[in-house]
Amino acid sequence: MNPCVIPTFPVDIVGDGRWMSMHNRFVQQAKSSEPDVVLIGDSIIQQLQFSSLWTEKISSLHCINLGIGGDRVENVLWRIKNGEFYFPTRVKAVVLFVGTNNTDCTPHEIFEGILEIVKQIKQLLGNVIIVIPTLLPRGQFPNPYRERNDHVNTFLVDKFSNEANKDELTENVHVVKIHENIVGNDQTISHHIMHDYLHLTNKGYTKIFGKVYDTLCELLQTS
Amino acid sequence: MNPCVIPTFPVDIVGDGRWMSMHNRFVQQAKSSEPDVVLIGDSIIQQLQFSSLWTEKISSLHCINLGIGGDRVENVLWRIKNGEFYFPTRVKAVVLFVGTNNTDCTPHEIFEGILEIVKQIKQLLGNVIIVIPTLLPRGQFPNPYRERNDHVNTFLVDKFSNEANKDELTENVHVVKIHENIVGNDQTISHHIMHDYLHLTNKGYTKIFGKVYDTLCELLQTS
C-alpha cells in the first residue's frame, strides 16, 4: 500500500507535542477565520509567512498559512481530513505544496498522494481553485532527491496541464512550474536563493513564489 | 563517553549533502570575511538572519551567521574544529547557541558539550567575548524537553555567573538569560512568540534576541 495516500500524523519522536499543538491551533483558526486563500504544506510554506513577499504581497490576498515544518504528503492529508479545512465561509483558492520530505517514497507514490489530497480538498471545499507549485530541487550538487522531485513534477505537469488527461479531478487545478531556472548551468544551487539548499531566502521567495502570487492574482480575478 | 564532547558531523540520511555544503561554504566565508561578531548554532541562529531584528540591528555589528538547522552540540564542535573559525582577522565576539536538538542527551552531557565548544573557541580565537544565550523552552505545553533545557540553563548560569566557579574557562564568557518570561502563567507558550513552539516569530526574535543584541553592544563598547 502506498504510504502517501494513508492519512497519518507523525510520530512525536521528541515528545514535545509541537506538531499536534500546531494542528489543533489550525483547526481553531479555520473555524474562526474567513480566508479567501488557504496555503498548506511543509516548512517552505510555513516560512513563506516570514518573507517580504508575504508581507508585501501575498498577505493582502486574505490568507491563512497552514504550513508545518517537516510535513509529508500523508501528514497534510491527515490534517485536511481532521478539521483544518472546515471553514465557515467559502474559500476561493488553495495553494498545496508538499512532497520533498517524502524522501523514502517513489515519485509515483508522492504523485498519488498529492492526487489524494486534491480529491479530499474538492470533497470539502467544492470546485475551489487549487494551485500546485512544482517541487523544488534540493542539495547544492546533483543528487537522487533532485531527480525524485523532478519526476514528481513530470507526473504533476502531465496530469494537470496535458489536455488529454483532463477529468473531474483536474478541473480548476493549476500547476505552476516554479522549479525551472533554479539550478545553474554548472548544476549547482546558489545559497542566495536557497540558504541551506532546501529553504528559500527572501530573494528566493520573491523570485520563485512570486510566480505563485501572480498565478493566484490572475485566477482570482477571472473566477 | 559523552556524545556531546565528541566532534561529529551528522549522517546525511537523506543523501542530498546539504549539511556538508553549508559547512564548506562557511569555511570559505570564514577565510575571506573579516567579521567582528560570529554567531554559531542551530536553526534558531540560522533563521535569526531572516528576522527584522537582524536587518535593523544585529547585521550592523558586522556579523557572520554560521547557523545550521538541526545542529547538535557535537556538530557545532566539529564545525569549529574543521575550519569555520579560521578567520584572517581578530574576531571580537562569538554568540554560541546550541543544545535543544540534543534531545537524547542528559542536561549535564549538553552542558559539558557547550564547555568543550567554549574551550575550542578560546583555543582558536584567544580571549574573545563569548555570549551564550540560555536555551529556550519548547512545546506549547509542559514536557520533559522544557525541563531538560531548563536544567542545562541552571548549569550554564551556575558555571558562568557564579563568582565561586570562575576559572580560566569562564573568563569573558557571558550567559544571557533569554529563557525567562516566555512561558505564560498557564504554562503555555504563545505562537505569537514561537510560531511552531520551537522557532521564533519576528516578534519573538525582537523580544528574546533583543537582549542578546543589547548585551553584545554593551560588551563591544567596553572591550
TrEMBL record, chains A, B:
InterPro entries: SGNH_hydro (IPR013830), SGNH_hydro_sf (IPR036514)
Organism listed in the record: Dendroctonus ponderosae (Mountain pine beetle)
Stored PANTHER family: PLATELET-ACTIVATING FACTOR ACETYLHYDROLASE (PTHR11852), PLATELET-ACTIVATING FACTOR ACETYLHYDROLASE IB SUBUNIT BETA HOMOLOG (PTHR11852:SF0)
Highest taxon listed in the record's lineage: Eukaryota
CDD domains: PAF_acetylesterase_like (cd01820)
Protein's name in the database: SGNH hydrolase-type esterase domain-containing protein
UniProt family annotation: Belongs to the 'GDSL' lipolytic enzyme family. Platelet-activating factor acetylhydrolase IB beta/gamma subunits subfamily.
Gene3D superfamilies according to UniProt: SGNH hydrolase (3.40.50.1110)
Residues in SGNH hydrolase-type esterase domain copies: 40-206
